[in-house]
Amino acid sequence: MTRGLAPERRYLFVIDGAEALRAAIERVFGERAEVQRCQRHKRRNVAEYLPKKAQGDYDRRICNAYTLTDYAEAKAELQKICRQLERVNPSAAHSLEEGLGETLTVHRLGVGELLRRSLANTNPIESCLSTVERVVRNVKRWHAGDQALRWTATGLLEAERKFRKVKGFREQPALQRKLNPRLTQQVRSRNVQSAESRHFQLHSGQ
Predict the structure, then answer these.
(1) Which of 59, 6, 46, 58 is nearest to 29 (CA)?
(2) 17, 56, 128, 176 — which has fewest CB within 10 A?
(3) CB-hemisphere CA count at 13 Å for 10?
(4) Residue 38's CB: how many other CB atoms inside 10 A?
(5) C-alpha–C-alpha distance, residues 55 and 49, integer Å
(6) Would you kindly state where each structural domain of the chain is located, as residue ranges?
């Protein structure tokens, strides 16, 4: 909250499967939080339990399920894969089932296809952090003070050069309206009132 997040708003958080991070979001934001679990992390976690010869087939099927647009259809397909995995490796089935609903949050919210691809995984932040790692990896001796902070900032500035517009960014207003319909309506009302006030001032000569 101290970083400028309005407490009355609902937010969409895109995270990996870290339990501590999920718990922190729940503790601070509670019901105001919508959480999207990274689909790529989920696929990798499932694959780790499977023999090499089975990884490609199941990963392809899980990926295809995530590309479905309808929430209920995608969830049903993933649950079907879970049942089949029970016979192959119960641990893989449990991995897919754990937090499955939160890997489909963008589906449930009806996010458009392009924006859904961007928000369904943590690739944007991971790409940014990998650039920071590349920049600082040649530092062999770390001194006291703010050296680490300065190198991190240098890495972030380097990453910024490669930033691109989020695919599907034009769909963001629609997502905002779904997350905060009341606030969106309030903003519209204020804009209308402001426009009416300017119109009145213009015609009254004020």
Answers:
(1) 6
(2) 56
(3) 16
(4) 22
(5) 9
(6) 9-121, 122-167
| DSSP string for residues in 138-179 | T---PPSSSHHHHHHHHHHHHHHTT--PPTTGGGHHHHHHHH
The span from the CA of 129 to the CA of 155, in Å, is 8
How is residue 43 written in tokens?
Answer: 């696929």
| Tokens matching residue 41 | 């992390």
Q: Are 136 and 155 in contact (CB under 8 A)?
A: yes
Residue 123's nearest CA partner among 182, 166, 171, 65 is: 166
Condensed to tens digits (0 to 9), the pLDDT of residues 24-78 reads 999 999 999 999 999 999 999 999 999 999 999 999 999 999 999 999 999 999 9
Start-to-end Cα distance in the chain: 40
CB atoms within 10 A of CB 50: 19
